[in-house]
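Hey, resending since the last one bounced:
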Amino acid sequence: MAKVRVHVFLKPGVLDVQGKAVEGALNGLGWTGVSNARVGKLIEFDMAEPDEAEVKRMCETLLANTVIESYRIEVG
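The structure tokens again:
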């Protein structure tokens, strides 16, 4: 059994409304040096026989909207 992590982020150029909200909140709380905040998601699961090609198919099918999101896979 191995741990698989899929990091999903909006592609550059796609407006990240949640990231802008986080950035604004941090600035409002006094962290004025924060800019270009981006919010993503982490999907973590165990896989009996980890196969990066199989995880890529999972990402392309369900885990990421590849039109507006990119992803990075970690196995191990």
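Strands lie at 2-10, 41-47, 69-75.

Sorry for the duplicate.
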